[in-house]
Design brief:
Helix content: under 10%
Largest sheet: 7 strands, mixed
Order of helices and strands: EEEEEEEEEEE
Number of helices: 0
Distance between the termini: 40 Å
Radius of gyration: 14 Å
Strand content: over 45%
Number of strands: 11
Structural class: mainly beta
Length: 124
């Protein structure tokens, strides 16, 4: 079993930055093959993949919509994953969810572990 707790959301103006954090707690260890990922869901839209990182190798992946603006990283000892979001746009407004993807294909329906989400609002 894995518990995920997000923090760091809030209200920011267009062009601003936010840093999201996700702390993972498990009864065992996080396997090196697992992916820690961020998804988001805007009002009236389906949940979508934002970014992911392989726990062991640190291999990253990004949605095209956030490439060059968002950076994912992890702190292994603290079992924490971060999402640095720069140059934020109004269309980035959504609830951001942390997830553990065991299969590694970042398909929403196959992700077994989710956090409760944190709201990010980009508005002037």
């Amino acid at each position: 079993q894995v518990q995920l707790v997000e923090s760091g959301g809030g209200l920011v103006q267009p062009g601003g930055s936010l840093r999201l954090s996700c702390a993972a707690s498990t009864s065992g260890r996080i396997l090196s093959s697992w992916r820690l990922a961020w998804f988001r869901q805007a009002p009236g839209k389906e949940r979508e993949f934002v970014s992911g990182i392989t726990w062991g190798a640190g291999t990253t992946r990004y949605a095209d919509s956030v490439k060059g603006r968002f950076t994912i990283s992890r702190e292994s000892a603290a079992k924490t994953v971060f999402l640095q979001m720069n140059s934020l746009k109004p269309e980035d407004t959504a609830v951001y969810y942390c997830a553990v993807d065991i299969r590694g294909d970042y398909v929403v329906s196959r992700v077994p572990y989710w956090g409760k989400g944190t709201q990010v609002t980009v508005s002037s």
